[in-house]
Amino acid sequence: MKILLTGANGYIGKRLLSQLIAKGHFVVCTVRDKNRFSVSEDFQSKIEVIEVDTLKPESLNAIPKDIDGAYYLVHSMTSSSNKFDEMEAESAENFKNAISKTNIKHLIYLSGIVNDEKLSKHLKSRKNVEDILSSGSYNFTTLRAGIIIGSGSASFEIIRDLVEKLPVMVTPKWVLTKCQPIAIDDVLQYLSLTLFKEQTFNMSFDIGGPDVLTYKEMMLRFAKIRKSRLMIFTVPIMTPRLSSYWLYFVTSTHYRLAVNLVNSMKVEVICKPNNLSKLLKIEPMRYDDAIKMALLKSVKN
Fold first, then answer.
1. Quick one: CA dihedral 121, 123, 124, 125, positive or negative?
2. Which pLDDT belongs to residue 54?
3. Rounded distance between C-alpha atoms, residue 223 and residue 216, angstroms
4. SS3 track for 102-124
5. According to the per-residue pLDDT averaged within each range, which of 29-43, 80-94, 156-170, 176-190 is highest?
6. SS3 of the chain: helix, strand, coil, percent, to 5
């Protein structure tokens, strides 16, 4: 099958590419700049690379008409613009219009868990993108994930930076917010195995690991695995702006990303029950195992 992979140079896209190739697919990779995208020689005969900017509708004409499936992994959360939600909506609308002119049978979108009434701007934007993409003339599936644990992911690197740089923390109260982290390897399994699965057509699924934890608990568990001492004290007076600066100065996070992450971290992201794991025969790994694997891979890299 010919699969269109948007965001092929991103954190998820680069990892999903190898899985799609391993399953025998030919992958059309969309990137903004071909010069910043490289793959191993073994992959070069199994992919096509096209330059696409979803904010420029004319560039989407480069998408082949004979694609069978596609992944939408585009987001603008790290953009320096305060209007990233408008950019994401425009990108989704442009992509929907372009992809609807192809032979596509199935589009998969990786979104964020949105089961709270008071969503952050980031999560509202993700849900809006989902609504736009779902109105196209193709089968559509949304997979909604919370915190993704893997070497190189923003969430994992923030946890690592905080734990390794601050043995004693005075933290905002959002560290007591509950979430359901998931290992990057499990995210990739869900993405690859959902493709063309008719039982998932025109549905959305929350995906997460078996552990529901607060951000405080995640940091304490990370410290225990690293055999580091860590003390955390929470205070109710730290504003979102101060929290964002705290992440920005202590971790390697860009300030705009820190702002969006802080706003999202105040929202509980816990999976609604569904049968996707059973359908795809996936048993998600526990948080501690995901951390150990991420640490092992970061050492290898």
1. positive
2. 93
3. 11
4. CCCCEEEEEEECCCCCCCCHHHH
5. 176-190
6. 45, 20, 35
Q: Under CATH, what is the fold of the domain 2-212+267-300?
A: Rossmann fold (3.40.50)
C-alpha–C-alpha distance, residues 144 and 157, integer Å: 21
The residue extents of the domains of the chain are 2-212+267-300
Predicted local confidence at residue 161, as pLDDT: 80
Residue 300 has pLDDT above 80, yes or no: no
Q: Which residue has tokens 């690592």?
A: 160
3-class secondary structure, 274: coil
Half-sphere exposure of 218 (CA within 13 A, CB side): 31
Provide the 3-class DSSP secondary structure of residue 171: strand
Residue whose token pair is 């290898």 = 300
Residue 45 is classified by DSSP as G
